[in-house]
Design a protein that fits this description.
The protein is of the alpha+beta class. The protein is built from 21 helices and 28 strands. The strands form seven sheets. The chain has a seven-stranded mixed β-sheet, with helices on both faces. Strand 22 and strand 23 form a beta hairpin. It is globular. The N and C termini lie far apart (about 55 Å).
Length: about 800
Amino acid sequence: MNDAIDIDAVAAISAIGRPVRRKEDQRLLTGKGRFTDDFNMAGQAFAVMVRSPHPHARILEIDMEPAQRMPGVLGAFTGRDCLADGLSPVPHSPVPSTRYDLKLTGPGGGAMFFGPQLLLPADRVRHVGEAVAMVVAETAPQALDAAEAIVIEYQELPRVASSRDAVLPGPPAVWDEVRDNVLVDTMFGDKEATDRAFAGADHVVEMDLHIGRVTGVPLEPRAALGLYDPASGRYTLYAGSGGPVRQKAELAAVLGVAPEKVRVLSYDVGGNFGVRNRVFVEFGLVLWAARKLARPVKFTATRSEAFLSDFQGRDLVTKVALALRADGRFLALRADNISNVGGRCVSLSPLGKGSALVTGNYAIPAASLRSRAVFTNTMPTNAYRSSGRPEATYAIERLIDKAARKLAFDRVELRRQNLVGPQMMPYGNPVGARYDSGTYEANMDLAMRNADWDGFAARWQEAEARGKLLGLGLANYVESSIGAPNERTEITVTQAGRVEVVIGTAPNGQGHETSFAQVVSALLGVPVAAIDLVTGDTDRVSLGGGSHSGRSMRHAATLFAMAAPALIGKGKALAAQLLDTTADEVAFADGRFAAPRSNRSFDFLELAQEAARLGLEGELAVVTDNEMHDPVFPNGCAVCEVEVDPETGWVDITRYTVVDDVGRCINPLIVHGQTHGGAAQGVGQVMWEECTLDPASGQPLCGSFMDYGMPRSDNLPSFRTEIVEVLSPTNPFGIKAGGEGGCTPALAVIVSAILDALAPLGVRDITMPATPFKVWQAIRDAKTGLAAT
C-alpha cells in the first residue's frame, strides 16, 4: 500500500496536520444531534425497571399481579419469563481478541468462568441496582407507579464488596461455580530472574495501592428504543453505544435469531469513555418487550439509575516493589494486581492492558507479575478511558517518587537514567509488550520546560509568603492502543459530487466526521466539505470494531490508505473512456486525472458527474477490509503544580502541562481537545470522584451529583498541551492514538504534586480522591505523628 501512495508527500500538501474545525459541531450545537432520547415512535410504550435493593440475595418470589392490574400497564416481566421465552445470556466475551494482548487465564491456566447475565435474573441478584423486573405501560408515570406496586421477597445472602476481602480465605461466594471468587489468576514475566535481582539489590521499595472505582457519568443517561416488525421478524434498536456492529451480533444471540434479523442504530452518543462499549440488559429487554406487546418500547434511565447500574471503571488493588542498585539503576519489578470485575465479568481489558505496562517507560531488566480478577457484589466494571493504563502508570510513578524520597535521589534524574531510550526501539518490556517508538526523555524535558520547572522555587517562596503550600509533580506515561482487529470501509464517489465513506467505527464525540474526512481528502484530493461519513446503522455498516482503545483513527486511516489505490485505479479506467485513451496513460496527481495528449482533466467529483452525464460504465466505489493486530504505544509526560491551603485542605491546581506523542497527528485541534478532556477526567478521579459503598450495608452512597463530585470549568486549570509526532512503524500514516494520553498520567501526576506540597509537613501518602477533608486530616495526622509513611 505504501508503494502506491507516498503518505508523507500526501500529508505535506493536504489538510492532514491542520487544525480543521469540526464539521459535526454545527449540528450538535444547534440542537440537531441524534441522541437516543431524540428518537420516538408512534404508539410507543414506556419501560421501567425494578432494581434490587440488596447487594446479594436470593429471589424467593415476585408478585406481579398488583402491577398488572394498574392503569395503563401493558406487561410486567421477570427472569422466569426470560427463561420461558428461551432468551440467552448476554455474550459479553470479556477476553481481548487481538493477537498481542496478554493472555489471561483462569487459576492454574484453566478456563475462566465469567458469570452469565440473563436480561433479568431468575435466581439471585448480585449487586444493588441489578434489574429484577420490568414493567411496560402506556406512559412513563404509569410504568413507574406499577413498578412500585411489585412485591419481591428476597433472602439476603452474605456479600463481599472489595477485592481485598474477596481473596481472603473463606469469603462469601458471589458465584457457586467460583467459591474463592477468583476467575483470573495468571503469572507474567520471569519470576526466577526477578527473584535473583531482588536478592542482589542494594535497595527495595514497596507500595500497596488502591485505585478506586469511578463511573462514566454520561451527559445523556442510558436509553434504548426497541421495535419489532412481525411481518419480517426483524428487530430494530436505537441506542447510543461504542460499537453497533458488535452489539447487533450480541443482541441477536440473546434473542436467538440470525444477525440479519437485528438492526442497531447508534448515532450521537452522549458520553461513553468505554462504559458503553458492551450491551446493557435494557437493550435486549426493550426489543423483547416490543415483540411481545406489538408496540415500540422505550426506556430512559434516570440519573440515579445510571449511578446504580452503569458499568463502572477502575477499581484495582496493586502491590508493587522495585529493586534498585546503589546508583539508582532499576533492576527488577514485582507486581500483584487484583481487578474487581463486580458481580459479572463484562471486560478484562483493564486488567490485561494495565498488566502489559507495569514497567512503564522504564528499562527494567526483569519483572514478575501476578494478575488476578475477582468477583464482588458490586456493579460490573468495564473499560474506562485509557483502560487499565492510568492504574499502571499511577503504581510505577508513585513507586519511583517513593524511591527517590527514601533513598535521597533527585526524582527527575532517577527517572532519566532509567528511561527507555529511542535507540532501544522497538523495545520489548519484561512482561511481553513491544513498544514501537518514542522519545521518552525528550518528552520529559519538553514538559518540564513548558511547565517552567526551573521557576518553581520562586513560586514556592511566593506561595509560602501567603501561607500556602506549593507542590510540583511529574509523571511519564506509556500506553497501548490495540482494539478489535477487524474493520471495513466502503468508499463511493457519487453522481451528486459527494464522497460517501461507510465505516464500522462509530464516533462517541471524537470528531470522526472531520478527521476521517481529512484523511480521505488527502488521499483522493477532494475537499473535506464534500465527504460524508456514514456510521452507526448496521443496515449500512456490516463490519467494524467500534470506538475503543484509541483504535479509531489508526484503523480508519490504514483502511483509507489501502482503499485509495483501488479507487484511483477505477478512476483512471473511467477517465480513460472520457479522454479516449488507455488507463495506463492516465495519471493521477494533485487530485486530478489527466492524460498526455489531452488538455482536459478531472478531479474525482467531476469525473463521477461527467461519467454519469454520458452514461459511461464503471462505478467509483471500493470495499476494503483489514485485520490489524499490531499495537501502538502513545507516550508522553505530564507536570502538575498545586497550591494547598493548610488551614482548610483545599487544593487548587494552578498549572497543568501535558506532552503527548500521538504519532502522526491528523487534526491537532481535535487532539488537544481530547487531551484536555482526558486530563479533566483524571482531575475528577483524584480530587472528587469515587463510587463509595456503605461498609455496614453494602449500599452505594453515590446516587446523584449531590454525592458524586465532578470536575467543572471553575475548578479546572488552563491546560498547556503539546503534541509530539514520533511516527509508528506499524501503519501507513504512523498514527498512534490521541484520545487517552491526557488521562493516563493524570492520577499519578496530581497525587505526586499534592504529596510534594505536603512533604514538608511529613505527609507521605494520601488516598484518592484527595478531598479537602482528606488533605486536612492528613495534615492533622502529620502534626500528631499519625501520618502514613
